[in-house]
Structures
1.
Amino acid sequence: MGNSLIWVLLAFAAYMLVMIAIGARYAGKTKNSEDFFLGGRHLNGWVAALSAQASDMSGWLLMGLPGSVYAFGTGQAWIAVGLFIGTVCNWLFVSSRLRRYTIVANNSLTLPMYLENRFHDKKRVLLVISSVVIIIFFLVYTASSLTAGGKLFASVFGMEYKLALTIGALVILIYTFLGGFMAVCTTDFIQGTLMLIGVLLVPIIAYFIVGSGNVVDIIGQSGVAGGASSFLNVMHDSGEPVSATYIISQLAWGLGYCGMPHILVRFMAVSSDKELNKSKVIAIVWVALSLAFAVFIGIVGRAYLFPEILGQGKFEAISSENIFIEMIKQIFVSDFHLEFIGGLFLCGILAAIMSTADSQLLVTSSAVAEDIFKGIIKKDASDKTVLNVSRATVVVIAVVAYVIALNPDSSVMGLVSNAWAGFGAAFGPTVLLSLYWKRINLPGAVSGIVSGAATVIVWDYIPLVQKDSEMVTLGSATGLYSLAIGFLISLVCVIAFSLVTKTPSEEILKEFDQISNKNI
């Protein structure tokens, strides 16, 4: 192993040890299930903001988005626009009301528990349905995160994929198992900071190395479809004008936010409205900078890495996803010989992956331990028992996700896209209307969750349409993202079923008024 690689390895080792140390620190402070799942609702504004955004963006921010812009042009930035709008709306219109409502709704610790308490579901139908949806989608979502981490280790160190996957999975498992929610949020705060520094600094350095007057010319020389002008035109993709369906599908990603359990739980855990208001500003600034500079990485990377690194016509997806890795290696290892610093910036990519995987593990364990075990199987379970079941569930889910992730050829982006659509369509309309529409009731909520999840499954997985002599899914046939149609169908079902069934009870209406008037 060369000296350069040793310094990079030391940076990774130092980073992972810090993450594990944080988990060990909070292990002794985690006394009950509320501590494990919500940190006792003591989250401050900075940690809440960066934790929510770090757990949201994952490796997609530093690998998927820059890679797609690098390969196809700035038309790929529409998804960033959709995510920014969704983030802003989520913080402004959902966070405060959801935090207050979960307190009033019997101090709900999880999203399924909030829905059950919000609609006074005595038969626990919502609890079961919501928990099952969370377990299914997050199991695959976690596997995709572990896969991305394994590929990062394999790419940087040249190690065998299964070994790389094992190392990444063990570190995430250890600090999540030990410290629960506060360990996850604290590590996410560090990871969010590291991600932001990397995404800002690396493309700026590369831009000045290339020279501001040379970027457009080199992009044109790199062989992009339609030339540099098309590449830099947000209304073009792969050299062709974008369609309305394409723009709608990309913007529709923003609809997913109000249905993401691992993001919503951060709102529930903030210590006060004052801290939450601080979080809103921090989170919106963070996401604006991160998304804008992730697109910038794809643009500058096209010039900086041509032709020595990824030139000679090698623009396939696997190469494009590695551009941020290659830029860091070239700048800090080859050009300036700052191997340890380069290793820390590579840890920023690992941070993006880990910050999502740990949140997925925690939310899934809460669905099993708090919602299913205590909510249905053993209602009189003590806090200590629930805590032990939670930690055991983290291990089990991690192991199952690890087994799924053993296939290095699995489509990470495809799994993320489908899981995001599933959560957004299933929970988004119900959560949103539960906070703002007085007339919504239990039948409406159930129909919304079921119809949203079912629409995504049918749209993405079941071949129903014949195209070019073969059966394809509705998603493939129309080019429309399943979240757009799933969210709409779920919204219609919630409203329709609520209006044709019984009006909510006086007690439920009184709680709604209490939230609306900010009387807690």
2.
Amino acid sequence: MFDRELSWLSFDRRVLELAEDDTVPLLERVRFLSIVSSNLDEFFEIRVAGIMQQEESASHPATREFLLEVLEGVRRLVEAEQACWQDRLLPALETAGIRFRSRPQLDEEALRELSPRFDRDILPALTPLAIDPSHPFPVLTNKGLYLLVLLRDPETGELRHAVVPVPRALPRVLAYGTEHARYHTLLSHVIQSFIDRLFPGLELRGSWAFRITRNSDLYVDEEEAGNLLEAIEDEIRNLRKGAPVRLEIEASAPDDELAWLLKSIGLKTENAYRVAGPVNMMRVGSLVDIVARPDLLYPTFIPTLPAECADPSRLYERIARQDVLLHHPYESFGPVVDFIRQAAKDESVVAIKLTLYRTSGDSPVVEALKDAARNGKQVTALVELRARFDELNNIEWARQLEEAGAHVVYGITGLKTHCKACLVVRKEKAGLRRYAHLGTGNYNPRTARIYTDFSLLTADEEITAEVGLLFNVLTGNLGRSKFRHLLVAPFELSRRIIDLIDSEASAAKAGRKSGVFAKVNSLVDPEVIEALHRASRAGVKVELLVRGVCCLRPGVPGLSENIRVRSVLGRFLEHSRVFRFENSGGEPVILLGSADWMQRNFVRRIECVFPVRDKSLRRRIEQEILGTYAERLGDAQELRIDGTYAPCVPEGRRGRCAQDAFLSLASRHDSEPVSAPRRKARGRSARRRR
């Protein structure tokens, strides 16, 4: 198996290749470069932090050697990232008329213009922090940008240090010049150009931008916590004091200043990264919004609205007749929002239940739930307080929902609620009837514009009954309930997935038709990998689409020679989880869901994988979705036995791409366009990111 951390770095390297690719629109390349930086931040906050903790506890003698291997892999990636900015993107931006200037390139004319702006708009927000015996080294915010300043007292000759925080509230990229000669530079460059004004009477000997990354994993003992919400709030406040795991600093910083800074924050030299360009490359992504150049972005895309969903007032009537499948972002997320909004005002609706893992800052879903509660509906919201990096947002949503009269619960102790489900109960002539939405992505209309996901709207009695059971498990802590149609973690998802894989191996041994297809974000779980090995040895053809981390090594003789692993990266973030099993020569089983094939998804999360039972929808997935991924390989790379990736077709992205095909396919369907979305960058706010 490949190592998880090194596979993560390989994924980030493939994202960087999008920034290097001149077939990608120029400002989109800048955006991809910022995503690389955001991904690396999370990598250090969680993965590297965990390795360093293992090293400190001496839990494994090889940990030290592995940590150095990971840090060296990061160093190579950072060097490639900076080279992409300096050697590829900056010249291309200049050619396109977008002029970006570093601090040494700010000439006298630029400084004359920027000087009054600094005094008026920047200087009042700056707070220099002296460091001396009476002012110890301050606690610096995780990922905050700072300037290390070296000063000299002209009277005594004494050298002094100070730290200046770069205010997060100010824009990190500034424009200056005339309409016909517009230039851009970093806020930190402007501050450094005039930083001597903060220290009158002292000589400026140098200033260097730097940032610290800290361990950001939450550690909450749920068994001991009297109030989970308050315990998580307290832990988030403590994260600013988390152990430092990385220092990034301008390459021009002298060795003795770097050594002094490392000693002050308690890091080793191996954890320091000198960068030749912007210290926080993620902030460069703001250039995309500052520069009004739609010609340098992907063509405007408007998601389509299936005709059967065009009238929100008749949506439930449509679902009652037949299941509805939506392929986001090619098809609008609007019907999912309408599903909840209509329930909020429908007098026939008596109850709404929904899981909330991540959502947008102006969430129409939450607003609809609040309206429903105010309208007298029984509203139950399963709010996951431990959604990484969205904890504070979810705490705020939980409080707002409670104030509106909704029942807010936080799931089962020790388990994250990651499934995406909504259940609506309506009072109809024949009695109470359930309607459900099941999805592969979050209830977030913003990320639904840039993440590929599926939504299933159904009134199938057997499926909706089990969705009702799922919510009862979550709210009533019912233990190991049995599900027939849904595959639910941590109860049985892993076992049933392995059983499905093994059934394909049995079919192949018996000479029957067999095959496995899986599309996931990550493949890490060793038991599933072993099952795939068994299937491969039995002769089963296994096709895997793994966007990010993949620990399975394909093509190993006698072990995995029948397994092919591909990764699709492009304009949209591939986020959907899709599974197809030939089912021992019978009718194929097609499943969608929220779970990756990782131990955390199988053991430490509430996940829901659900079947597509409608024959017409299964046919659509087979032909339009899986067929397109198999035939359109321009945006796909194949994982090789040595851990490297290679384009699946010689022409690479210049060839036919799956995502382009989905865009064309959506426009040909019997549908109508909805309002154009405002495209957002895929940084951690979208990780998250994930």
3.
Amino acid sequence: MLLALLLLSLFLLVLLGFYVFVGAPHSRTHQTFAAFVACLALWTIKDIALWGFGAGEVSAEWWTSVSFIIALLLQYSLVVFAWVFPENGGVPFKRAAVLFAPGVVLIPATLTGLMWEDVRFSDGRFAIQLAPLAYAFGLYAYGVFAYGFGLLLLKYKRYRGTLWGQQLGAILWALVITGTLNTLANIALPLAGIYTLLPIGSIFVLLGVVIYAYAISNFKLFSLQSALDQFRLFPIAYKVALSIAVVAVVSFLLLQIPIVWWSFGPGTTARAWQRYLVFSVITALAPNLLLVALVIRIISRPLRRLTEAAVAVTGGAYGTQVAFRSNDEVGLLAASFNELSRKMADDIERLRTLNEHLVRTEKLAAAGTLAAGVAHEVNNPLASISSLIQILQARHAVATVSASMGGVAGGGHGESPHEQDAETREMLRLISTQIARITQVLRDMMDFARARPPLRAPLDIAHVIEASVRLASFDKAFKRLRLTTDLEASAPPISADADQLQQVFLNLLLNARDAMLDGGEITVRTRYSARAGELTAEICDTGTGIAPEHRAHVFDPFFTTKTAGTGTGLGLAVCYGIVTAHGGRIEVTPNDERGTCVRVTLPAGLHSGPDFNSNSDFDSGPNSATHAPARVALGSSINHQ
């Protein structure tokens, strides 16, 4: 029974020491506690050796010497612990050298037997007669204990009312309890000739160790949350230690005991030792190989996967994920790596998109400057040419009337004047038509180059779209299309420039018309997202669509897939500039069935301007009619496939 209690005490000591040490192996507090537990484990082992298997005076002398030395080492570890806990501070080496100097004399004196005059263990009874030096040894050991206790008491007074103060208070109570019990079992009663409690002195120490571990672990050692945390995060050190312990115990039970039984069954002979050594080495291979496999599975394989993923990311495969989950440090590292890789891929994608926006903005700025210069340089001579054409047309009209009157009076020969007049009029008309086209292109370029901030006012985007649809319906080709609207009535008003947004939606409607020369369907819908605080308007057609290789360039100025003479490639560039100036974004995506969807997303809510009037600036009338021709002309130049 006593042997079982000592073995259980030893097991619990090692388990607690390992638990606390692995929790923070680089902490001086945890390192000192591990050293303290190691001394207690040695104390328990020597008790097992004597009280479980001891026999003879030599065993008693050995046990006594080790007891004196370990008792002194325990006091040293207590003082070191008092120095470093709870601040995790350093050890004052000069003070430690002075305080621990007597141990240089006392430990050799203990090893040479100067601490007792007689010690024996016979017939299950232990007896000792101490020498005077042993009392000096005891006074010194208790002095070291009192010094460490005093340091902890001073720190407790300093940190009273804090978590550190609570930890120090628990440790002080543990010292009082274990100090009292061990003094009673190992000193007071043996001096009185009573050795009954001496074999279980190490069990008394276990109570103090539990309290120490409980306090060092911030009072979470036996809490349910701490158990759940350990279940969620099971350190590699625990896994390796558990694997080694399980393999060792199982191999001992399944292999070593049968080999010992088979080898020494007939007797302890040289042949028996030979059998035992040979087969114990052979059977040790299996558990060792199993341990290697477990270590590789626990550490090597996940690290290899992490390394391969890291090399892939280094090679540019951003977003690479490690298909590995575990509740240890490697699993946490893998999860952190996956999150880092994903965020890196997202950041790089955002940077790429931002770079594209910056490049597009630079193109727009350069194109605007170029357009303004070209329009200014071409418009003046073009106006002169137009004026000359008009003069020629007027003169030719007068000359034609005169020639007609002269021809009636006197007749004539050769080519008919009417045929000459018709040919001349046709040539002048063609010239005027081409000049009008050039003028329209220049007007588009000037509109593109002209930068003015939006005149924001509260407005209902549904009314803007309805007004744009009414203007587009004046076009004959647009009337042939089927139009479906789905405008969300509960959408809040937005702060925007009504004229500019009307220009955007009218351009997009006419752009959809140009993509469906043989007829088709246009769907206009709006959606409001309260969570994102955005209002989205979507115009989808069932036209020819946009090729994937062209989709990234549709907002570039002067990019168009239309036939020559039918567009300038400025329409979507103008829409892009207007929408981004409003703090929104415009996107072109393929339609689910066929064709193209253009999605305009704008921030919802009112930021400035007068009170909202849902009918302002959107009533049909002279103002709308005035803008309609210009809008239709600009819309015809939008680039579309």
